[in-house]
Input
Amino acid sequence: MKKIFILCALTFVSIVIGFGKESLRKWTNQEGREISAELISLVNEKATLRMNNGREYVIELSTLSEADSNYARQWQKAKETAASMEEAGIKIGVPTEAIVETAFDQQTPPIQKGMISGWKAGLGEWRIDDGALIGDELPENNHASSLTHRLEATHLIITAEVQLGTAQQIAFACRDTVPPNLHLGRLYITPDKLWIQHMNGIAKTTKAEKLVTKKVKLDPEKWYNVTIEIIGDHYRAKVGKEEIEATHSRFADAKGIIALVNKGQGAKYRNVALWHAEPKE
Output
């Protein structure tokens, strides 16, 4: 999977604001000489600058000041990030800070309780095999398998790759910050449909309502990119090329736990990332 977010030193919001509205700026070379120009492109460490009169010059970054050469490289990275963000189908949010990025590529024997690559196995049996996380439901649990990660977030973006395998369904579950972390909402994925539901309560007090369902045709043996945006009361998801969205006031509540939930055996995950986000203007 192409890595979606590549800037860690700067937040995505500052990149969008700082580089998205490019205009004339001062550029200084190693000798201290200055010109005012707009950065048009950066290819192989060569920047194309356009003067106010329309004339363009190609300049080696090595001839510019350290601050200006770094600016040009960050500008290029911002362009690449924006393109990757569009490819991932992110539309209503802007990622600002990574919470966790887990490849699940370190071989790990089966566990039923405990930590696995920074996530907590609660129900079912989990392992990492051949570069993928696998979570199997256990009959004695009488419940789908569940792997969780704690966080504190208002707006949230989730990206991952999933393969259904022989599992009946998988879900990306979200719980709030109210002890004992009540259910908030879920995206369900099966071979023939997707649905989003809002939730409340916990265990036997859980209440849920399907807000939207979409018929799909997913190959259980194929890997699919998943992108979920929970921005305010808006919940939007993309699985492969399929998109689904819903709104509910419950989605605006603070998020405290994200869970990967499998019904059945054989579902796989890799490259799971959780991001703080802001609404896209």
In short: Confidence is low (pLDDT under 50) at residues 1-21.
